Each structure stands twice: as C-alpha cells, then as structure tokens.
Amino acid sequence: MESPVKEEVGGELAMEIESSVTAEDWRRALSRVVPAVAVLRTTAPRAFDTEVAGASYATGFVVDKARGIILTNRHVVKPGPVVSEAMFVNREEIPVYPLYRDPVHDFGFFRYDPGAIKFLKYEEIPLDPEAASVGLEIRVVGNDSGEKYPV
C-alpha cells in the first residue's frame, strides 16, 4: 500500500511516495500492455469544424478485443472525414474507423475488425476508473511524434 508523505521543501510542497513496486513488476506490466498499444496514423483530407486538414500520429490502446475498440484522445477522432490506420508493436497495420468522439471530455473511440490482426498476440487493457487514485505511481506508454513506444 502506497502512502503519500507531504513535506515543505523550499517553499514548495513536495510529495514523497514510498513504493513497493519493483523494476521487475514494471517490466511484467509493460510486457503485458505494450502489445495492446497502437500508434494511430490519421489523415484528415479536408478542414472541418474547428480542425484543419493534415496528417498526424497519436496513441490508442485496445479496450475491447472482442468488439475491436481502441480508446484514444478526442482530437484524434476528428469531427469530419478521416482516414486512419493503427500500427501495433509487431508492425502489423490495420484500418480503423471513427466510432465515437465525446463532445465534452477528452476521449474518443475507433473500431477495427479483430480478425484483421493476424500475427500479434495481445490482450485488451480494461478500463477500471475505481482503481485510479491520487498518488498512485504510473507509467505512460505511447508514441511521441511517431516514435515507437517511449515510456
């Protein structure tokens, strides 16, 4: 159990977190989740609403393997026409299609054909909002401007 300890340092509030999570725990967790993370390449062929035409890269992750659903940020699932592909860690590429773009919150979903992934063995990353808490140590896996999976 992690417990944040607060102390005043040089006029700023610092948080020191005692962690029982080891490097090996992180390696195991990353080896399980990285295959479910996709680099999303999107091309908006024309300007629409508040978005401009152009191409970009983003990150998404599989949240429902059986139905083929990838969660990403709202701006990635454009409000207008978009052509998108997902590339997985083994370089397998599949087309993805906009499913939902939340009008208020920063999330959106793409859908894909689960049968289109032929070679990669992966599991979904289930959504579990109740497990989130302040002070919990996390690692963020994703792509930064097209780089492959920095942590």
From TrEMBL:
UniProt xrefs under Pfam families: Trypsin_2 (PF13365)
Coiled coil: none
Region forming the signal peptide: none
InterPro entries cross-referenced by the UniProt entry: Peptidase_S1_PA (IPR009003), Peptidase_S1_PA_chymotrypsin (IPR043504)
Entry superkingdom: Eukaryota
Alphabetized PANTHER family for the sequence: PDZ DOMAIN-CONTAINING PROTEIN C1685.05, PRO-APOPTOTIC SERINE PROTEASE NMA111
Protein name: Protease Do-like 7
Organism (species): Aegilops tauschii subsp. strangulata (Goatgrass)
Organismal lineage: Eukaryota, Viridiplantae, Streptophyta, Embryophyta, Tracheophyta
